[in-house]
Amino acid sequence: MSTACFSEWRKLPVSLSELCINTTLRCGQSFRWQKLPDDDEWRCVLRGRIISLKQDPTHLYYRYYSPPSTAPLPTPPASTSPSRAASKSANDDSESQSETASDDTLALIKHYFNLSSELTRLYSEWSSLDPNFKKKAPQFTGIRILRQDAWEALVSFICSSNNNISRISQMVEKLCINYGPLIGTIGGRAYHDFPSPQALTGKDVESRLRGLGFGYRAKYIYNTAVMVANEREEGWLDTLRNPESPAFGMEPAHGGEMRPEGREGYRVAHEQLLALQGVGPKVADCVCLMGLGWGEAVPVDTHVWQIAQRDYKFGRGAHKTLNKATYDAVGNHFRKLWGKEAGWAHSVLFTADLKTFSERLTTSKKVKVDVDVKKEEDGEEDVEIKTTVTTAVASKRKIKEEEDIDEGEAKKGKDKVVVQAAETTHTRRASKRLRKQ
DNA sequence: CGTAGACCTCAAAA
DNA sequence: ATTTTGAGGTCTA
């Protein structure tokens, strides 16, 4: 019954190397997407609208949910930037309204996934500039930086400090349920949008968040909400955006000249964010990259610091420890190496280092994988990894939400074998990093 | 100015 | 089964 309110699935031609939602939505950028247990459907509330996504090797499929009671076109409930709430003229034709919502949903998805930039071309540029990237990237294609709401990104990454992705997701969920507007209920599950800054300025917010398990971050969130809602102009966060990557519905403009430290607008945004409670350099860079569209922002967390030491010769001499100077040096190094979208490239290597995904790098020598070397037209040797579906699901073992449905790597040249959704049992202890290279 | 400790919680390791 | 560790940092002394 609940599906009666969903639109039909629409499709958009996208290859897995241009976008892999199974990786992009799980690599710690956004903490709100939910994968439905049954099929490979992902669901989230975006700008007041419940969106569902799924993907096959050639297309991204999307549909949106219209709450039965209210008007078909959901009114964006002022999640963050209530200013331009898309003042649609009141029309009575419901069919044209759903058409409008459908077009709008497509525009929303293109905006959210930054689909205007060619990821494949960026990957080959980064590969030509950096042997280490070239080595790691083939197993992690289709990883994009999302264009998230800036306020949501800010709060999410305040939650991320000294924390793990699983709990960050739980905390963000609690924020939405307790303080965000209810958008709809599907199959008994309530879908809320992310709360506005003013929704988190209540006197009891800190204590209540503590009660919900936020720990010391409760105060940061409350203080930051007060600062943004009461001590900044309306729409202040969006004024810090990269003009090339504007908020939904706005026209792009020039973003400034690139330098090793990043463009001027990025430096300004970073500095401004540091004034907020619970926002240090790393969180500020996360917000700049994923919430404000500054592609050169490189958040240096423990993972990236380890990568910098292991693969880029940091950790000695002047940059022995990760202090402020080293933090900047690491970012500058990657900006000089990868260029204006260094943060995008960083995200690929970061994901490769996540425990959830790192199996892909070592699994080739472990089990259940056919590796065959073939010549590509450009004369380079390329290792193709086919993950076979040796799932052995037989027993009663219930794989609880830890299953790892991998996309088959997009094949070119040869016929489109494309192992779709290869299932592996994913013995959790899978594989440690064996070699220090 | 740059550097140790404390800070909440929880699930995975030991 | 119970304790310890560590997880995408930041603030403060």
From TrEMBL:
**Entry's family note:** Belongs to the type-1 OGG1 family.
The record's subcellular locations are: Nucleus
| Name the UniProt record assigns to this protein | DNA-(apurinic or apyrimidinic site) lyase
Regions of compositional bias (Basic residues) in chain numbering:
427-437
Q: Does the keyword Nuclease apply?
A: no
Region of interest called Disordered, as start-end residue ranges on this chain: 71-102, 399-437
Q: Which PANTHER family match?
A: 8-OXOGUANINE DNA GLYCOSYLASE, N-GLYCOSYLASE_DNA LYASE
Q: Which GO terms describe its biological process?
A: base-excision repair, AP site formation; nucleotide-excision repair
Top EC class of this enzyme: lyase
Keyword Endoplasmic reticulum present in the record's keywords: the answer is no
Q: Which reaction does it catalyse?
A: 2'-deoxyribonucleotide-(2'-deoxyribose 5'-phosphate)-2'-deoxyribonucleotide-DNA = a 3'-end 2'-deoxyribonucleotide-(2,3-dehydro-2,3-deoxyribose 5'-phosphate)-DNA + a 5'-end 5'-phospho-2'-deoxyribonucleoside-DNA + H(+)
- This protein's species is Byssochlamys spectabilis
What GO MF annotations does this protein's record show? Answer: 8-oxo-7,8-dihydroguanine DNA N-glycosylase activity; class I DNA-(apurinic or apyrimidinic site) endonuclease activity; damaged DNA binding
Q: Which InterPro entries match?
A: DNA_glycosylase, HhH-GPD_domain, HhH_base_excis_C, OGG_N, Oxidative_DNA_repair_enzyme
List compositional bias (Basic and acidic residues) regions by residue number.
408-417
Question: What residue spans carry the Low complexity bias annotation?
Answer: 80-89
* Alphabetical keyword list: DNA damage, DNA repair, Glycosidase, Hydrolase, Lyase, Multifunctional enzyme, Nucleus
The record, for Gene3D superfamilies, names: 3.30.310.40, Helix-hairpin-Helix base-excision DNA repair enzymes (C-terminal), Hypothetical protein, domain 2
Lineage at the top is:
Eukaryota, Fungi, Dikarya, Ascomycota, Pezizomycotina
Q: Which SMART domains match?
A: ENDO3c
Q: Taxonomically, which superkingdom?
A: Eukaryota
Domain HhH-GPD as annotated: residue spans: 159-354
